[in-house]
Amino acid sequence: MPSMLDAVVVGAGPNGLTAAVELARRGFSVALFEAKGTVGGGARTEELTLPGFRHDPCSAAHPLAVSSPAFRGLPLERYGLQWLHPELPMAHPFPDGTAAVLSRSVGETAASFGPRDAGTYRRLVTPFLHRWDTLVRDFMSLPLTALPRDPVTLARFGVVGLPPSTWLARRFRDERARTLFAGLVAHVMAPLSGFATSAIGLVFALAAHTRGWPVARGGSQAISDALAAYLRELGGAVHTDYEVKRLDDLPPARAYVFDTSPTALARIAGFGDTYARYRYGPGVFKIDYALDGPVPWTAPEARRAGTVQIGADSAEIGAALRAASRENRAPDAPFLITVQPSVVDPTRAPDGKHVFWAYGHVPHGWDGDLTEAIERQLERFAPGFRDRVLARATAGPPELAARNANYIGGDIATGAVSGLQTLLRPKLSLFPYATPHPAVFICSQATPPGPGVHGMPGHNAAKAVWRRLRQT
Ligand SMILES: Cc1cc2nc3c(=O)[nH]c(=O)nc-3n(C[C@H](O)[C@H](O)[C@H](O)COP(=O)(O)OP(=O)(O)OC[C@H]3O[C@@H](n4cnc5c(N)ncnc54)[C@H](O)[C@@H]3O)c2cc1C
Fold first, then answer.
1. For 148, which of 81, 138, 283, 317 could close a Cys bridge (C-beta 3.0–4.6 Å)?
2. Residue 254: CATH number of its domain
3. Which of 130, 106, 110, 109 is nearest to 120 (CA)?
4. 457 CA distance to ligand 1 centroid (A)?
5. Considering only CA atoms, which residue is closest to atom 10 of ligand 1?
6. Best residue for ligand 1 mutational test, from 244, 356, 445, 460 (most atoms within 8 Å of Cβ)
7. Phi and psi torsions of 386, nearest 5°
8. Is the pLDDT confidence value at 166 over 80?
9. Alpha carbons 298 and 96: distance in angstroms, whole number
């Protein structure tokens, strides 16, 4: 290691890894320090239940990663990353045995909403479809890390996306499209009536039609391993089992980049109450299953999909989100996001067997057990599900926080996605990656454009870091 590094990165989640890679690619010397025994943070894979069953304890479906300008600019396939696309990106089954879907085809998607809403849906998505790559780059680079390439489409997207999703839902006449959109918004745990929640739903829908919702062959760990392998080839050093508690724990460097929560950063760097107003959101309760066969969904579409949303209608989804975020209680009928990677990736489980995960929202820090309520929901849409369970690994907020210090109170978005904090995080600032110390930066999902495996906070923060490195 040189006596003075250019940059030290703390935390090897997708954002820390991306920031480190971006700096190393530009010729800077970089070392990365990760508290856990392996790299990956929220993009990792482990045998959590039985031998031969490869589970993703956190992220599994990757519409944001495959669309991400940060990842698309890196040669990750050369380091083993392979995207596998299920026949349908997503299905949302209903109690009557039918399902709405997000398909690669706009036509199939629109048809699944029923004749009264098909045209509305086409009109909603069509203006953005052929401009997706530019649009996603433009809004994921905000604020101010790059000038928009297509400001007109970005402004048009803002007009549709900035209002609450409950406004967007009013365009639809029937419950099928409303329910599917409510579920999409719930992926980032935002209240349905929140600022910019229409944009969240639209981003997931547009991603399905343009780049898909793939899983990574072998598990989400493949994304992190590819980033780490590329970093090493660029000369970067990766240190695991190294929890950083104080700045003094780190070697001398010209810049420090933190893929941590703002709270942890303030503690480590002695920033006092800089981020005291930053709010954390509800937690999740997650179950990883080893199954004897595929999930016996009643709706045939759900058997073909990588991701399946569970919520009978938009009212039930709204009530589940309110219970966890405002009423401080576990929902009776939790809204579930479920992913079944082995429908498309045979490497995840022994022959004929499957891995499957489901999570529902619970209050911040909740320490109860949601297993019964989750399985009751699954049985409504997949009768006989419980008979297929060989083993399960459960994790509520305390276990999630123990697995990853960034998941404070089980908040897997490292900060509430509500109000202005949806876009302006971790504080109201035109330079969100900067901190009170000019050599210290933050790059986690607590910065724009927020949660998900896409590396864009890391990519954007790296730009701020290299500007400083070139000036000093
Ligand atoms: C159950 C669950 C399901 C999810 N599903 C999806 C999904 O399907 N698709 C999707 O796109 N996203 C999903 N996500 C969200 C996704 O995982 C996160 O948005 C993403 O991982 C955030 O990346 P990050 O780099 O900001 O932080 P993280 O991935 O949280 O990484 C932070 C890293 O920093 C390390 N660290 C923290 N403090 C220190 C310290 N003091 N010293 C050293 N190291 C430290 C941590 O150990 C961790 O490795 C899911 C998350 C969870 C938990």
1. 138
2. 3.50.50.60
3. 110
4. 12
5. 452
6. 445
7. -60, -30
8. yes
9. 9
Q: Measuring from each residue's beta carbon to the nearest atom of ligand 1, which residues come in under 6 Å?
A: 10-16, 33-36, 41-43, 58-62, 64, 243-244, 259-260, 264, 284, 286, 359, 400, 404-406, 412, 444-445, 451-453
Cis ω before 426 (30° cut-off from 0) = yes
Q: Which atom of ligand 1 is nearest to the CA of 445?
A: 26
Residue-number span of the structural domain to which 19 is assigned = 5-81+216-279+414-471
Residue 257 lies in a domain: yes
159 domain-assigned? no
Q: Are 447 and 16 in contact (CB under 8 A)?
A: no
Who contacts 464 (Cβ-Cβ below 8 Å, separation ≥6)? 145, 431, 433, 434, 441
In a domain, 30, yes or no: yes
Number of structural domains in the chain? 1
Does some domain include residue 113?
Answer: no
Q: Can you give the pLDDT at residue 346?
A: 97
Distance 200 CA to ligand 1 centre (A): 19
From the CA of 305, how far away is ligand 1's center (Å)? Answer: 24
Q: From ligand 1's centre to the CA of 451, what distance in Å?
A: 9
Dmax over CA atoms of the chain, in Å, equals 67
Q: Mutate which of 224, 261, 412, 417 to test ligand 1's pocket (most atoms within 8 Å of Cβ)?
A: 412
pLDDT per residue over 172-205, tens digit each?
A: 999 999 999 999 988 876 677 778 888 889 999 9
Mean confidence (pLDDT) of the chain: 94
Atom of ligand 1 nearest to the CA of 458: 25
Bridge partners (DSSP) listed for residue 284: 361
pLDDT at 146: 67
pLDDT 10s digits, 237-251 = 999 999 999 999 999
Confidence category of residue 334, pLDDT binned at 50, 70, 90: very high
pLDDT above 80 for 1: no
